[in-house]
Write a structure and sequence with these properties.
Elements lengths: L2 E6 L5 H12 L3 E3 H5 L9 H12 L4 E4 L6 H7 L2 E5 L3 H10 L17 H13 L1 H10 L4 E5 L2 H11 L1
Parallel strand pairs: 1-3, 1-4, 2-3, 4-5
Helix pairs in contact: 1-8, 5-6
Length: about 160
């Protein structure tokens, strides 16, 4: 395990899982949100984001946390391990609610209110985004693919690594 991606619906706990994995493996951790967002809640250009991502992918070892559907295949091609946090929508919505007002190492600002657009994305994740993820997991089935269906499964995996 040298090149790892952690994917899943927003609010599933990708960053939390990635930090725990980073602490256990010492693999460098990169959050896609930090490659894409400025602290004033604006995004960098697509070209800048892809350049930053390519610079990370070119490294020998990494954990990349985040979805960003437009670049997911690029990351999946280059990784050796995929963690897919495939949780129920309710769990993900709860995750979004729980992080309100908290400082996070994976975001350049503190979320103080619920983003309705993000909630809509979460509610539609299983029908709009997950099918593409499943297709890519099938296409890249030679990768080490670990799918968690609950937070408990992810926690047990981390605990077993300790």
């Amino acid at each position: 395990m040298n090149k790892v991606i952690v994917i899943g619906c927003p609010g599933s706990g990708k960053s939390t899982f990635s930090r725990a994995l980073h602490e256990l493996t010492n693999l460098p951790l990169y959050h896609l949100d930090l490659l894409n967002w400025n602290s004033d809640k604006t995004t960098v250009s697509k070209a800048t984001f892809l350049e930053r991502l390519q610079n990370v992918i070119a490294l020998d070892k990494w954990i990349i946390d985040g979805n960003y559907g437009s670049s997911i295949e690029l990351r999946m091609k280059e990784c050796d391990t995929v963690f897919f946090l495939d949780y129920p929508v309710e769990v993900c919505i709860d995750g979004i609610m729980q992080r309100q007002g908290k400082t996070r190492s994976d975001m350049p600002w503190i979320e103080t209110e619920v983003d309705e657009e993000l909630l809509g994305f979460i509610k539609n994740y299983n029908t709009q985004s997950k099918p593409k993820v499943m297709e890519l997991l099938k296409k890249y089935s030679e990768k080490d693919i670990i799918v968690f269906k609950s937070r408990k499964e992810a926690e047990e995996y981390i605990n077993n690594m300790r």
